[in-house]
Design brief:
This protein has 22 helices and 15 strands. By secondary structure, the chain is an alpha/beta fold.
Length: 497
């Protein structure tokens, strides 16, 4: 870096901004947020900041990280809990370049280390909302004892302990607690509630506690939509120059955003985001919106990411500007993804066109590496339903989807290093792979077990019900087709002697 910049802190604020920040920091905690990732900070927290500035929300957020990787937590605490959201892209024909310093947090901590702090927040009568984004892999049931949940539990178990403690301290408090799981899982509210009640049973909760959770904790299925590439590492100096300070937690996002929630609009009075003019939709059913978003936008991301990394691409916009990859994605959407939606949705063709335009946003440097995290569970949730629908309609496998699955399996041919799990692309360049320990260990052991990546290897990988959700090998000739696609990819990039 050629120039020294001061770090973002209250010293960087105007007098008006400082007063606003102090007011927020000293306001009651009304939201408990589990997830310090770029998405929630550029989506939900950005909306809460708008509602506060509109005078519609009087409160603050307590933020914790779901995993014991607390680099962002430390950065925020070093910056007086301030950070910047940068919007770049287009709103209609208008080019957007907006920056906002956000003041929404009054407590930032790691609940894996500071469990007592988490429990103390459960005791607060001011609390109205619990929101999470722990990725698809984090929204899962793992049997654990109550006394060990702080160390060994996943988010649903920890949330259940939080709710039990709230009931134990406050009793049958009648005010509603809105619970928003923003993990990209269909019917995420119902799923989290189901896991919570399993844990209530496991933890020996009283019938009174179970009744209180049923009647006063509102688990809301919801769908989030905003492309958030996060920290602009390759252009950080440019943004530091624009901002006039250094911000280790700044995040880039597109102007477009949508939060669709299945529930009564009456609940907007508790969390008045729609009332603040934000694009929040309270719906009777999320079904159609969910299908469009997950199968088209998220499905496209998951389809192209592993194979694109193998081919040497770094960002989404590079992929969709490449003629071969653009044609592949357009063909997959037109022949495999959109037909699987049948007549269940609105204008799916228009939505697909809008998504491709958002992918091409030249200002959004969306790293494929960040999208690749937990790709196995993403494939199961975002693409596998499309594959099964296509098989049902055509009695054959969708060719382009099988290319995507082959690329995914090749992507997970990993090795263990001191810095984590890594793979090598078709030209031998190293890339990092991020997933749950269960998935990474299985893929690593499979890579070691089968020196030759033949049908036996593919059958072994695809038959693991624990990581895919079911045994994929029972579907037609999927083993043979995926093996052929994977071997063809490899041959295409073999050096010519």
């Amino acid at each position: 870096m050629n120039k020294e910049f001061k770090n973002l802190s209250i010293d960087c604020l105007t007098e008006e901004q400082r007063k606003h920040h102090e007011k927020v920091v000293n306001s009651p905690i009304r939201i408990m947020q589990v997830g310090e990732g770029n998405f929630l900070m550029s989506f939900f927290d950005w909306m809460v900041d708008r509602a506060i500035k509109e005078g519609n929300f009087d409160g603050s957020i307590a933020l914790t990280c779901p995993l014991n990787y607390d680099g962002k937590i430390k950065t925020l605490n070093n910056q007086d809990m301030l950070y910047t959201v940068i919007q770049r892209g287009f709103r209609g024909e208008e080019e957007i370049f907006e920056t906002d310093i956000l003041s929404v947090f009054s407590k930032v901590f790691n609940y894996n280390v500071e469990w007592d702090t988490f429990m103390n927040i459960a005791e607060m009568e001011s609390l109205d909302v619990v929101i999470s984004n722990t990725t698809e892999a984090g929204l899962a049931y793992k049997k654990v004892e109550l006394e060990n949940v702080s160390e060994d539990g996943l988010y649903p178990g920890k949330l259940t302990a939080f709710l039990m403690h709230r009931f134990e301290v406050l009793g049958n408090i009648s005010k509603k607690l809105l619970i928003f799981p923003c993990e990209l899982v269909a019917e995420n509210g119902r799923v989290l509630k189901e896991y919570a009640f399993k844990h209530l049973e496991d933890f020996g909760a009283s019938q009174e506690c179970k009744t209180w959770v049923e009647e006063n904790c509102v688990f809301l299925s919801n769908l989030v939509d905003r492309i958030v590439p996060g920290y602009p590492r390759d252009e950080e100096e440019f943004y530091f120059e624009k901002l006039g300070y250094k911000d280790g937690a700044m995040s880039m996002c597109e102007p477009f955003f949508l939060w669709a929630i299945e529930g009564s609009e009456e609940l907007d009075k508790i969390l008045p985001l729609k009332a603040s003019g934000l694009n929040v939709q309270w719906l009777d059913s999320l079904h159609d919106t969910q299908l469009l978003k997950v199968r088209i936008l998220n499905g496209s991301h998951t389809l192209i990411t592993p194979q694109s990394i193998l081919k040497g691409f770094k960002q989404v916009d590079e992929v969709v500007e490449n003629e071969t990859m653009k044609a592949y994605l357009n063909e997959t959407l037109g022949k495999e993804i959109l037909p699987s939606l049948k007549n269940k949705t609105g204008n799916k063709e228009e939505f697909a066109s809008t998504v491709l335009g958002r992918f091409r946003n030249p200002h959004i440097k969306h790293k494929l590496e960040s999208i690749s995290m937990n790709s196995v569970s993403k494939f199961s949730n975002r693409l596998w339903p499309t594959v099964k629908s296509y098989i049902e309609d055509n009695n054959k496998l969708p060719e382009n989807m099988m290319v995507g699955l082959a690329g995914l399996i090749r992507f997970y041919q990993v090795e263990k290093t001191e810095s984590g799990f890594v793979g090598h692309d078709f030209k031998g360049n190293e890339y990092k792979v991020f997933d749950t320990p269960e998935v990474l260990d299985f893929m690593y052991n499979a890579n070691v077990k089968f020196e030759e990546k033949n049908e036996d290897y593919v059958r072994y990988v695809l038959s693991n019900e624990k990581i895919w959700g079911e045994d994929m090998t029972k579907y037609l000739n999927i083993v043979e087709v995926v093996t052929e696609k994977m071997q063809s990819m490899e041959k295409e990039y073999e050096p010519v002697c």
